[in-house]
Amino acid sequence: MDDYPLLNLFWTMMWFFLWMMWLFLLFKVIGDIFRSHDLSGWAKAGWLIVALVLPYLGVLLYVIFRGKSMGERDLKQAEAQQAAFKEYVRDAAGSGSGGTPGSSVDELTKLADLKEKGVLSDAEFQQAKEKLLA
Length: 134
Description:
- The chain is an all-alpha fold.
- Helices cover about 85% and strands about 0% of the residues.
- It has 5 helices and no strands.
- Helix 4 runs antiparallel to helix 5.
Protein backbone atom coordinates (compact mmCIF):
# COMPACT_ATOMS: atom_id res chain seq x y z
CA MET A 1 0.00 0.00 0.00
CA ASP A 2 3.06 2.24 0.27
CA ASP A 3 3.37 2.51 -3.51
CA TYR A 4 -0.25 3.74 -3.95
CA PRO A 5 -0.59 7.21 -2.38
CA LEU A 6 -3.82 8.55 -0.94
CA LEU A 7 -4.24 11.05 -3.78
CA ASN A 8 -4.22 8.21 -6.31
CA LEU A 9 -6.92 6.46 -4.29
CA PHE A 10 -9.12 9.56 -4.45
CA TRP A 11 -8.37 9.91 -8.16
CA THR A 12 -9.40 6.30 -8.76
CA MET A 13 -12.58 6.75 -6.72
CA MET A 14 -13.47 9.86 -8.73
CA TRP A 15 -13.02 8.06 -12.05
CA PHE A 16 -15.05 5.09 -10.79
CA PHE A 17 -17.82 7.44 -9.66
CA LEU A 18 -17.83 9.24 -13.03
CA TRP A 19 -17.91 5.91 -14.85
CA MET A 20 -20.91 4.78 -12.76
CA MET A 21 -22.70 8.09 -13.45
CA TRP A 22 -22.07 7.68 -17.17
CA LEU A 23 -23.29 4.08 -17.08
CA PHE A 24 -26.50 5.17 -15.35
CA LEU A 25 -26.98 7.95 -17.90
CA LEU A 26 -26.30 5.55 -20.78
CA PHE A 27 -29.08 3.21 -19.64
CA LYS A 28 -31.40 6.18 -19.11
CA VAL A 29 -30.66 7.47 -22.62
CA ILE A 30 -31.15 4.05 -24.21
CA GLY A 31 -34.45 3.66 -22.37
CA ASP A 32 -35.52 7.13 -23.51
CA ILE A 33 -34.59 6.37 -27.12
CA PHE A 34 -36.95 3.40 -27.18
CA ARG A 35 -39.66 5.18 -25.17
CA SER A 36 -39.76 8.22 -27.46
CA HIS A 37 -42.77 8.22 -29.80
CA ASP A 38 -41.66 11.23 -31.83
CA LEU A 39 -38.60 9.43 -33.27
CA SER A 40 -38.85 7.16 -36.29
CA GLY A 41 -37.27 3.72 -36.26
CA TRP A 42 -34.26 4.93 -38.23
CA ALA A 43 -33.75 7.88 -35.90
CA LYS A 44 -33.88 5.53 -32.91
CA ALA A 45 -31.33 3.24 -34.57
CA GLY A 46 -29.11 6.24 -35.36
CA TRP A 47 -29.17 7.59 -31.81
CA LEU A 48 -28.54 4.10 -30.44
CA ILE A 49 -25.53 3.61 -32.72
CA VAL A 50 -24.15 7.05 -31.79
CA ALA A 51 -24.63 6.33 -28.07
CA LEU A 52 -22.91 2.94 -28.32
CA VAL A 53 -20.14 3.71 -30.83
CA LEU A 54 -19.16 7.10 -29.38
CA PRO A 55 -20.11 6.36 -25.78
CA TYR A 56 -19.31 9.56 -23.91
CA LEU A 57 -19.87 11.94 -26.80
CA GLY A 58 -23.03 10.14 -27.95
CA VAL A 59 -24.67 10.31 -24.52
CA LEU A 60 -23.62 13.93 -24.12
CA LEU A 61 -25.02 14.84 -27.56
CA TYR A 62 -28.30 13.07 -26.82
CA VAL A 63 -28.70 14.93 -23.55
CA ILE A 64 -27.88 18.25 -25.26
CA PHE A 65 -30.24 17.79 -28.21
CA ARG A 66 -33.07 15.82 -26.62
CA GLY A 67 -32.67 16.49 -22.90
CA LYS A 68 -35.71 18.76 -22.63
CA SER A 69 -38.05 16.28 -24.30
CA MET A 70 -36.44 13.53 -22.19
CA GLY A 71 -37.51 15.39 -19.06
CA GLU A 72 -41.01 15.96 -20.44
CA ARG A 73 -41.40 12.24 -21.15
CA ASP A 74 -40.21 11.43 -17.62
CA LEU A 75 -42.74 13.87 -16.18
CA LYS A 76 -45.55 12.49 -18.35
CA GLN A 77 -44.72 8.92 -17.31
CA ALA A 78 -44.57 9.89 -13.62
CA GLU A 79 -47.96 11.60 -13.87
CA ALA A 80 -49.45 8.55 -15.61
CA GLN A 81 -48.05 6.26 -12.90
CA GLN A 82 -49.40 8.54 -10.17
CA ALA A 83 -52.85 8.58 -11.78
CA ALA A 84 -52.81 4.78 -12.14
CA PHE A 85 -51.77 4.41 -8.50
CA LYS A 86 -54.55 6.74 -7.33
CA GLU A 87 -57.08 4.82 -9.42
CA TYR A 88 -55.85 1.54 -7.93
CA VAL A 89 -56.14 2.93 -4.40
CA ARG A 90 -59.67 4.16 -5.13
CA ASP A 91 -60.63 0.73 -6.47
CA ALA A 92 -58.97 -1.10 -3.58
CA ALA A 93 -60.55 1.18 -0.98
CA GLY A 94 -63.90 0.87 -2.71
CA SER A 95 -64.76 4.56 -2.68
CA GLY A 96 -66.73 4.19 -5.89
CA SER A 97 -70.46 3.60 -6.14
CA GLY A 98 -72.40 0.52 -7.10
CA GLY A 99 -71.68 -2.98 -5.87
CA THR A 100 -68.20 -2.29 -4.64
CA PRO A 101 -67.31 -3.07 -1.01
CA GLY A 102 -66.75 0.62 -0.32
CA SER A 103 -70.36 1.46 -1.14
CA SER A 104 -71.52 -0.53 1.91
CA VAL A 105 -69.02 1.38 4.02
CA ASP A 106 -70.43 4.64 2.69
CA GLU A 107 -73.95 3.45 3.41
CA LEU A 108 -73.01 2.45 6.96
CA THR A 109 -71.50 5.89 7.50
CA LYS A 110 -74.71 7.52 6.29
CA LEU A 111 -76.77 5.27 8.56
CA ALA A 112 -74.59 6.17 11.56
CA ASP A 113 -75.02 9.87 10.77
CA LEU A 114 -78.78 9.44 10.57
CA LYS A 115 -78.77 7.60 13.91
CA GLU A 116 -76.71 10.37 15.54
CA LYS A 117 -79.12 13.01 14.25
CA GLY A 118 -82.04 11.10 15.72
CA VAL A 119 -83.68 10.29 12.40
CA LEU A 120 -83.27 6.54 13.00
CA SER A 121 -83.94 4.65 16.21
CA ASP A 122 -81.57 1.95 17.49
CA ALA A 123 -83.85 -0.81 16.20
CA GLU A 124 -84.16 0.79 12.75
CA PHE A 125 -80.39 1.30 12.62
CA GLN A 126 -79.70 -2.35 13.55
CA GLN A 127 -82.25 -3.59 10.99
CA ALA A 128 -80.79 -1.43 8.21
CA LYS A 129 -77.24 -2.45 9.16
CA GLU A 130 -78.07 -6.16 9.07
CA LYS A 131 -79.81 -5.75 5.73
CA LEU A 132 -76.80 -3.88 4.34
CA LEU A 133 -74.25 -6.40 5.60
CA ALA A 134 -76.26 -9.45 4.45
